[in-house]
Amino acid sequence: MSLEVRYAVHPEDVKSYDTSRIRKEFLVEKVMVEGEINLVYSFYDRYIVGGAVPTDKPIKLETYDELKADFFLARREMGIINVGGDAKITADGTVYTLKYKEALYLGQGIKDVVFESVDASSPAHLYINSAPAHKSLPSRHVTLADANVLQLGSLETSNERQINQLLIKEVIETCQLQMGMTELKPGSVWNTMPAHTHNRRMEAYFYFEVPENQAVCHFMGQPEETRHIWMKNEEAVLSPSWSIHSAAGTSNYIFIWGMAGENLDYTDMDVRQPNELK
Q1: Rounded CA gap, 143 and 129, in Å?
Q2: What are the beta bridge partners of residue 261?
Q3: Would strands 27-28 and 235-239 be described as parallel, antiparallel, or unpaired?
Q4: How many CB atoms are closer than 10 A to CB 59?
Q5: The CATH number of the domain where 266 resides is what?
Q6: Torsion (CA) 86, 89, 90, 95 in degrees, nearest 10
Q7: Where do the DSSP E strands lie in 161-200?
Q8: Annotated binding site for Zn(2+), which residues?
Q9: What dihedral angle (degrees, nearest 10) is formed by the CA atoms of 200, 176, 190, 145?
Q10: Which has fewest Cβ within 10 Å: 39, 46, 177, 244?
């Protein structure tokens, strides 16, 4: 298990960053490693992102010195979305089986969390997001059939997509964590366009189903002075509240969005049209 701590940065400072510094501060390359749990603790709303890949034996989620807590979820809630083979997650004795693209919400106060793959030859790839929580809420397994689904964009603007809202207030009660999954239709490459910011919360993206030898160009930064990060399959990126978060791929792909902050209003965003970006 590893936990990397990343500090927040001022948008004026980011303007002076070169490519390597931008990648160091915002890109999370080491997410899915067989037999490991890898997490990044961000000072943006103290959000944690990462992944767990259990193979031939279970992996227990332990606490970290940096959390100063007796167990990981002592003061936190967690969302998990499986992007690999079938998974078995045991939370304080309750067993949940997650299939591909299914989610699990774990509430504050759960002490023992164990990740397993049903078939070690086809391991689960468990994408994890966690945020501070102020009260304990019921855990829940959420499937695509439970999701609130939106159809947005069009093929004419290269952003026809389906948004599967999994862990949001219309589906499940959480303290501040929200997660969902956006699937681009064949022929579409742009996500989250028009772009937007929201000073009330931060966000993180995780890209998967990016075909071999293809890539996604993630755009970030203030709308008046954007930057980009080239990303590969199963990598994540942190998005500060002052930054846009959009991308275009060399192929269609899927991404998971997660966020936390002041409110749970999904439509709370300050939109910037394409012709306004610089």
Answers
A1: 17
A2: 201
A3: antiparallel
A4: 19
A5: 2.60.120.10
A6: -50
A7: 161-167, 178-184, 190-191, 195-197
A8: 196, 198, 203, 245
A9: -150
A10: 46
pTM for the model: 0.97
Per-residue pLDDT of the chain (278 residues; tens, 9 = 90+): 999 999 999 999 999 999 999 999 999 999 999 999 999 999 999 999 999 999 999 999 999 999 999 999 999 999 999 999 999 999 999 999 999 999 999 999 999 999 999 999 999 999 999 999 999 999 999 999 999 999 999 999 999 999 999 999 999 999 999 999 999 999 999 999 999 999 999 999 999 999 999 999 999 999 999 999 999 999 999 999 999 999 999 999 999 999 999 999 999 999 999 999 99
Residue type, 19: T
205 and 239 Cβ atoms separated by less than 8 Å: yes
- The count of domains in the chain is 1
Residue 183: what are its φ and ψ, rounded to 5°?
-115, 120
Maximum separation of any 2 CA atoms in the chain, in Å: 53
Range of the domain at 225: 2-276
Which residue shows structure tokens 């994890």? 128
Token duo for residue 174: 């959480």
- Other C-beta atoms closer than 10 Å to the C-beta of 92 total 13
Joined tokens for residue 69:
């807590």
Please list the residues that pair with 40 across neighbouring strands. Answer: 4, 49
The token pair that represents 260 in the structure block: 């936390």
Please report, as a single letter, which amino acid is at residue 21. Answer: R
